[in-house]
Write a structure and sequence with these properties.
By secondary structure, the protein is α/β, with parallel strands linked by helices. Helix content is 42%, strand content 17%. Strand 8, helix 6 and strand 9 form a beta-alpha-beta unit. The mean pLDDT is 97.
Length: 275
């Protein structure tokens, strides 16, 4: 039985047109204990100009650590999604993200299988994913970094598919980053799926889905970037928290994924009210 903390994915300031440090400070002001930054390769105009929250992995990793220390907040992990089915991209991206995480103090690197090539078979894709995850795990293990595999794309849209990806590489570094909203939109019961993976969790995306969103897209998509405010949608957060507190063998951050600062404020108010 571990402790439960409430963090937030930095996507909550996407539309605020502010930089990373501003978003970290805002998360702390709202009462979150952790943040989950998004990292990217190379240089990107909006981030360089201070109008977007994503951080380049060409920057000093201590930039993230210092920002969090200044605001009295911690890192839950890095959002480092890259296509595992495309090793020419995924291998080096994940390895760099893992090294970056080790230096900035983020314990988890989150990813998923990503969009596949249209000409590869499923068997070929699973071979490619095994290669990518194996290469990443060899960098993660000696650094004590965990890899969170998320339910988000064509193969991980079912419990069986996510399990198959997870089992490709036997490593203490490989775990599950469960996304409640993606699970629901794929057409599954997010509570039952959570019970299936709770022992393997290294991170959790606390994503709620509004009734309107569910009506429009459930069963038609494999995921969504962000959800509504926690408590405004279909996910039973009381049950989610109870399952994680009872059965997760490690401390776990529920990283809220919503699209606005106002939704982030209502999410933390709702979640804290449940504990």
């Amino acid at each position: 039985m571990g402790k439960v903390y409430f963090g937030i994915n930095m996507e909550f300031v996407r539309h605020a047109d502010k930089h990373f440090e501003w978003g970290v400070q805002k998360a702390a002001e709202l009462g979150y204990t952790h943040v989950e930054p998004m990292v990217h390769w190379g240089r990107e105009l909006l981030s360089e100009a201070g109008y977007f929250h994503s951080v380049s992995m060409l920057d000093d990793p201590l930039r993230l650590k210092r920002a969090c220390e200044k605001s009295g907040i911690k890192l839950s992990g890095l959002s480092a999604h890259t296509p595992l089915t495309k090793p020419e991209i995924g291998v080096e991206y994940l390895k760099q993200a893992i090294r970056f995480a080790a230096e900035c103090g983020a314990p988890v690197v989150n990813t998923d299988e990503g969009p596949k090539q249209p000409w590869t078979t499923a068997d070929e894709d699973f071979t490619l994913m095994r290669y990518t995850i194996m290469e990443a795990s060899k960098v993660a293990e000696p650094r004590g970094i965990l890899i969170g595999l998320e339910c988000h794309q064509q193969y991980s849209k079912t419990p069986e598919g996510l399990d198959r990806i997870y089992k490709l590489v036997k490593s203490p570094a490989v775990g599950i980053n469960y996304d409640t909203g993606n699970a629901f939109l794929c057409g599954h019961d997010p509570i039952q799926w959570l019970k299936r993976v709770v022992k393997r969790l290294v991170h959790l995306h606390a994503k709620d889905i509004s009734v309107e969103h569910a009506s429009a897209e459930r069963g038609k998509v494999t995921g969504t970037p962000v959800g509504c405010a926690c408590g405004d949608g279909v996910v039973d957060w009381q049950k989610v928290i109870a399952i994680v507190k009872k059965d997760c063998p490690r401390d776990l951050v529920l990283s809220v994924e919503c699209g606005t600062i106002e939704q982030a404020e209502r999410s933390i108010r709702h979640l804290k009210g449940l504990v």
